Automatic annotation (TrEMBL):
This is SDR family oxidoreductase. One of its GO terms (molecular function) is aldehyde dehydrogenase (NAD+) activity. GO terms for cellular component: cytoplasm. InterPro entries: Epimerase_deHydtase, NAD(P)-bd_dom_sf, NAD(P)-dependent_oxidoreduct. Gene3D superfamilies: NAD(P)-binding Rossmann-like Domain (3.40.50.720). Residues 3-214 form the NAD-dependent epimerase/dehydratase domain. The lineage of its organism: Bacteria, Bacillati, Actinomycetota, Actinomycetes, Micrococcales. It comes from the Bacteria.
Length: 302
């Protein structure tokens, strides 16, 4: 199959692309600049020039593809409304392009906020819909395209997709620890944070492309919930820093923007996804990756 991927040069997309290439698919990746273009070419991916703001370019690539995997997103916390509007416009464009074709349309979503405080599952519908909702209400909109002859599938990723080279939430939290000289956790540290190894997540996406039915939700979650205390302890051990509790009311001041997320209790199951796809996470867990020094270490560099 010829698969068009937005975000193909990114942290998750680059791993997904290699899974698909290994399975014999041709991967076409959105390239927003010369650096991305060269990176895609070097990885055996066919570059297609364009960006999330260039709907015509993406439409052209989607029309020529046997399926679309949309992983790119404007992670701009200073303009979340604008990012959501861009996401909704992109989803609408893909819906119009793929309508009545039965082609697969897989798109990135997340598990945070689905069912705070209890174990969320694939049966839980996202509570956000409409243009003004977070991420532009994209998940609810895209899943509705199952009624338009599109095999739409929500790829719900854990908030931490970890591994060597990750610069996401864990790197930010570890960076704060280095700056403050202490490894902090929020409150009593009981809040739970789901995670998945990058290689396991990529394998799940490849399986979802092959097997997931229209209108389904699949969870890229390898560990249902690691406590923030356990995460902070691992960061502290890796960096040689003391462990300290941060009162919830001080989390934003201590952690910065990441403080609004780190204290969330969002355990999430992937049991139904594993049964549906025949997927079993096998790679290292989050604490093991932290202990490996992927997020900072007290050891001097060589």
């Amino acid at each position: 199959m010829r698969i068009f991927i937005t975000g193909a040069s990114g942290w998750i997309g680059s791993a997904v692309s290699q899974e698909l290439i290994a399975a014999g698919h041709e991967v076409v990746g959105l390239a927003r600049n010369d650096e991305s273009f060269a990176k895609l070419q070097a990885a055996g991916i066919t570059p297609h020039r364009g960006s999330l703001d260039d709907l015509d370019s993406m439409r052209e690539a989607a029309a020529a593809a046997d399926g679309v995997i949309h992983l790119a997103y404007k992670h701009d916390f200073s303009d979340m409304a604008g990012a959501g509007a861009t996401e909704r416009a992109t989803i609408e464009m893909f819906g119009d392009t793929l309508a009545d074709s039965d082609r697969p349309f897989l798109f990135a979503s997340g598990v945070a906020g689905i069912a705070p405080g209890r174990l969320a599952s694939e049966d839980d519908a996202v509570p956000f819909s409409g243009p003004e909702a977070p991420r532009g209400g994209a998940e609810a909109l895209a899943l509705s395209y199952a009624d338009r002859g599109i095999r739409s599938v929500a790829l719900r990723f854990a908030p931490t997709v970890h591994g060597e080279g990750d610069h996401g939430f864990m790197q930010v939290i570890s960076g704060v620890a280095g700056e403050k000289g202490v490894s902090g956790y929020v409150g009593d540290g009981s809040s739970r944070w789901p995670a998945v190894n990058r290689r396991d997540a990529a394998r799940m996406v490849a399986l979802a492309l092959a097997k997931a039915p229209a209108g389904s939700r699949v969870h890229a979650v390898g560990e249902e919930g690691i406590s923030s205390l356990e995460i902070a302890a691992a960061i502290g051990d890796a960096r040689g820093l003391p462990l300290v509790s941060i009162p919830p009311e001080d989390a934003a001041a201590h952690f910065g923007w990441i403080g609004m997320f780190f204290g969330l209790d969002v355990p999430t199951s992937s049991a139904r996804t594993q049964d549906l796809l025949g997927w079993t996470p096998t790679h290292a867990g989050l604490v093991a990756d932290i202990q490996s020094g992927f997020y900072g270490s007290s050891q001097p560099s060589r």
